[in-house]
Structures are given as C-alpha cells and as structure tokens.
Amino acid sequence: MVRHFSIKGKLVPVDWVCNLLKAKMNDVVQNEQINRFLIDGFPRNMSNLEGWTTYGFTNDIVTLKFVLFFDCSLEECERRCLQREDRRTDDNIDIIQKRFRTYLNETLPVLQYYEQTGLLRRIDANKSQDEVFEEVKELFR
C-alpha cells in the first residue's frame, strides 16, 4: 500500500506512517535491544507533527533529544543535486525548486515549532562535507 501511494505521487497517510514507525521501533527495541533512533525526514509537515504527537511518540515511546536541520541555500542545493554522481531522475532545476518551495510551505513551520521548543539544532550545510560532518559528530557526542 505504501508503494501504491508513492507511485501515485501521493503522501502516505500520517496514521499509517506513525503506526509503521511505532511498530518498527518497538520491534527493534524488543529484538535488538537498541533504544536510540535517527529518523530522517519525519515529521515533514504539520500533519506529520500532529500524528507524531497523537500517536504517543512525544511521551510513550520517544524522548526526543533534538531535531537536526541541515540549513542549505537553494543555490547550493541545486548545485549539489545537479553534480552528484547518483542523480535521481527528478534532479532538474524545476523539480529542485519545487521541492524547495514545498520545504518553505510545509517543513519550515515544523522547524519553527521545534526552534520554539529549544530542540532544533541547525547545521550550516553550505559548508564543506567535512566541516558539516564534524559539526554533526559533535551533536551526537
């Protein structure tokens, strides 16, 4: 079902994402005795954030340490996407700019929310890969 939504270019309903995420996290905790997670790209919009809260991630399952934000200019994003060796089929100027607009409209309010809570950790991703990596390592120490 998730693949069906992806093929159609639609977002998977937030309750599905939250239930899948919760089930996988519980499974990993029980079977692998791992209780630390890095979740990439979620919550991506306010609906995701509401689901994150509604499905108990903020109290029952997760003690959120911080939200990591790689702050990068549109120009640098364009340059990197267009120059990477393993380019996606949708790596072109129009789609990259559309993704950036989506970020401004959908994701930025989530980041502002976490900034107000004091949980946002911002990395200047316009720097070199090595500099960014060093800053990220410091956050995880």
UniProtKB/TrEMBL annotation:
GO biological process assignments: nucleobase-containing compound metabolic process
UniProt-listed InterPro entries: Adenylat/UMP-CMP_kin, Adenylat_kinase_CS, P-loop_NTPase
Entry keyword annotation includes Kinase: yes
Keyword Glycosyltransferase: no
Keywords of this entry: Kinase, Nucleotide-binding, Transferase
A Gene Ontology molecular function term of the record: nucleobase-containing compound kinase activity
Top-level taxonomic group: Eukaryota
Family under the similarity heading: Belongs to the adenylate kinase family.
Protein name, UniProt field: Adenylate kinase active site lid domain-containing protein
